From TrEMBL:
Name of protein: Dihydrolipoyl dehydrogenase
Signal peptide: none
Catalytic activity line of the entry: N(6)-[(R)-dihydrolipoyl]-L-lysyl-[protein] + NAD(+) = N(6)-[(R)-lipoyl]-L-lysyl-[protein] + NADH + H(+)
Disulfide bonds: 49-54
Alphabetical GO biological process terms: 2-oxoglutarate metabolic process
Regions annotated as coiled coil: none
Necessary cofactors: FAD
Residues annotated as binding NAD(+): 190-197, 213, 281
Amino acid sequence: MSKQFDVIVIGAGPGGYIAAIRAAQLGKNVACVDEWKNSKGGPALGGTCTNTGCIPSKALLQSSEHFDHASHHFAEHGIEVKGVSMDAAKMVARKDAVVKQNNDGILYLFKKNKVSFFHGRASFVKAVEGGYEIKVAGAAEETLLGQQVIVATGSSARALPGAPFDESQVLSNEGALAMTAVPKKLGLIGSGVIGLEMGSVWRRLGSEVTILEGLPAFLGVVDAQIAKEAHKAFVKQGLKIELGVTVGDVKVGKKGVSVAWTNAKGEAQKLDVDKLIVSIGRVPNTVGLNAEAVGLQLDERGAIVVDGDCKTNLPGVWAVGDVVRGPMLAHKAEEEGVAVAERIAGQHGHVNFNTIPWVIYTSPEIAWVGRTEQQLKADGVAYRAGTFPFLANGRARALGDTTGMVKMLADATTDEILGVHIVGPMASELIAECVVAMEFRASSEDIARICHAHPTLSESTKEAALAVDKRTLNF
């Protein structure tokens, strides 16, 4: 007999599990279906973010940063450490433990909020009176009926043509996070978030890392001044970054991977590595959803077509996160999930795409919100810019990490903040103040007039705001 629900959520990643919890908080009878399995075959809620993305990568970044500090920087603080070594397998085991804590935490939240969880793959069967029939293929097959359906099936790593992932030598983010030994030579194709973060982890642990990027500009989506500063820091650390390349044949052998490529000058090159990480983007997960059974509209990329409110072409069917348009960011998916749950309950959900922050968790960290300087120029917007280097910040000096700057862009006439771009220590945390400011349409003068505690890194944000009016106090 079919089990009936007000709302069925397909996928328990950031968009899905948050949507399920919010809908339950609003009084709906909610089911959430997810097929991800842990090593023992049990449920592993949290999607790519928790299992093979945001959370595990931050765990490895933290571990590798500790190792880097102990190996190269403790002596500056008067701390003598001899015989520092890294047990990569133990580091990965700690990462796995962190992931499991998050998996279990979501299960607890489902129980707390009375969300019914079904472990298996969900697919559409047919439209029925007042909703949709959903099949769950798992240990025990289930049939669910839902008045409203939220699709939050996420995305998967895009493979390089002719070089499928084997997760042994040609790695996606999943394989890159599971290596238990440090490769002598590591190659990365793509210098996006995943490429830079994984490259940073294994470079710190001793790998010789080469990044091949097809675009002529480094981090083209980032403000050009910030990207230039970041590039300089990464090269200084030892990352070898090749831009404007064309990747040719990739050959996998018993001892490693060989990549034929052409540099920006058109010269033929060859890269031999022990492991190759491919991070050239992600594709929406809609295969197996059986969208055609109900006429759910997909675009040419396989993404679900939605409007500004995340409504699909079908009444009562919604979609959020990586499986729809917009940036593939966990927090974007969460915001859409909350908004859709509230819209189902008759409320007015809110997502402001103009104030979604972006973060790259390298060292230095890179974070930004709003438009870049090159975008403002292209749009013909008159603006004023203010920058402040961490080199002039007392807290950054005390931390021993003075790389980078804060850059603020404000409308030349109204002084409204149009974008803030940060490269440097704790940029991921500093950007939150800027998101709040932009959400409330603050001016640079507003930030300049707010008292910031001393000594803090956040004073650099205040000083960048002062710099918009050319009146910095500490530089």
